[in-house]
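User: Hey, my collaborator sent me this sequence without any context and asked if I could get a structure. I don't really work with proteins. Can you help?
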Amino acid sequence: MRLYLSSFRMGNRSDQLLGLAGPGRRVAVIANAMDPQPAEERVSGVQREFGALKELGFDPEELDLRDYFLNPGSLGATLRRYDVVWLRGGNGFSLRYALARSGGDTQIRTLLEDDAIVYAGYSAGPCVLSPSLEGFELVDPLEVVQRMYGEPPIWEGLGILDFSFVPHFKSPGHPETEAIDDVVMYLQNHQIAYRTFRDGEVLTVDGATTTLFE
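Assistant: No problem. I've predicted the 3D structure and written it out in structure-token form, which is a compact way to encode the shape of the chain:
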């Protein structure tokens, strides 16, 4: 299993992403954490990811999970065309719903087990790998899922990590850093395992080796 998990954007060790990807340069950018945003903001957010990835020599394409809501069985074949999936930040509940509705959660688990892909991204992207999204309602509005799809949010994470991934901790300048303090307090009070990450920090997993880069 190969993971590149950043607190915010590319983080300080993009060289590690290149190392995990090896010669592979095809990247699927998944931006469904931005689905609640106005269309123009979502477009500009995707373009920002494209720019950062192209600077590293990657060949990014957007993979919109909403295109697979009515035919989730077809997503697996699409994902196998890529070397890296890059899941950007935004609303974690929006991203989690899109992963479930499209079948992306199941397909990504399988690809990681087969070591067929690198899972990379920041903020909401790593957060959905947690066992649960409990506590993140203090920073990400829950109602967006009900508003957009008429269904309740999904609290269960993908469970790839055995702790809650908490980004933007003590990160001056990030608009969510104060709310993250509330998330940490909630997790502590409810005895939920977690790890905090400051913006710039990156957690990598390469097989049996897990490394935190500050």
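In plain terms: The chain has one domain: 2-213. You can pass these tokens on to your collaborator as they are.
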